[in-house]
Amino acid sequence: MRRIALLVLAAALVLAACTEQTGGKGGGEPRPATVDGIPASAGTHKQKMDVGTFGHREFLLHVPSKVAGGKWEDGKPADAPPLVIALHGGLANMGKMEDLTGFDDLSDEHGFLVAYPDGFMTTWNAGDCCGAAKIGNIDDVGFLTKLIDKLTDAGLADPKRVYVTGFSNGAGMAYRMACEKPDKVAAIGVVEGALVTKCDPSRPVSAMIFHGTADRNVPFNGGGDRDFNDKRPFPPVSKAVEFWRERAGLPEPRERVKARGEGTDCTSTGKGDQGIAVTFCKIQGGTHNWPDEASPMLWDFFAAHPRKG
Fold it and tell me: Is Transmembrane a UniProt keyword of this protein (predicted)?
């Protein structure tokens, strides 16, 4: 009898442990494999999305184990995590952006979602740039807005902690999202990009801007061609820094910010009354590349700047 009792007790403990690992609130609610058709299990998932036009758009969604394995209530994370949307450069794709940035590791460490959308024929319609997306007048603002709404409406991401970052053409697209949808974006992170779109946001947006002094594709002091069929020069990076800090009524960025990379010099405006800040990181001798220090510094900046109101 004693042996039978011990076996029953051991089985009960195993069952309780399994319930705790897969349960939600109080360990009794199973964590869903999907939420509104969106994968909720840990890992990177390739997704297709109907945007109301011919064909579909694609994105990769990385769900960290801290979210997938955390507490769930009513089939949703008990505490909706932040969302970082990372936009690839021209002639690249979502997979290359995932590899380039290393955001998956940061996501797993800090517990935020990462979405890597695919541009149209490897490009984004960032206004005056670039390529097929610009020529086709592709509604990339609409696509990214629908992606944000899909994840926030499902309760998988916090609508006040949505951040958009990008490289080169993708950086220009991050600017355009802040210009046209500032109610959807808490902060942007721009790496080697230019502001080449009409911009009159209804509210200010926090911005962290990285630019190398030796960038020949998007020159630090302006120049080059905006596109293969547009010989107008890119504006200097200083114009974008001035625009965003003036829009928020902030002083010139003079507060020193500790940079992680050698040769990277960062200054910030500090937070204004609305919690908005603009930080500019000048990379001495930096070329048209994603710096190793950019991703962790961008996450630190994003985490400190949720959208208010």
Answer: no
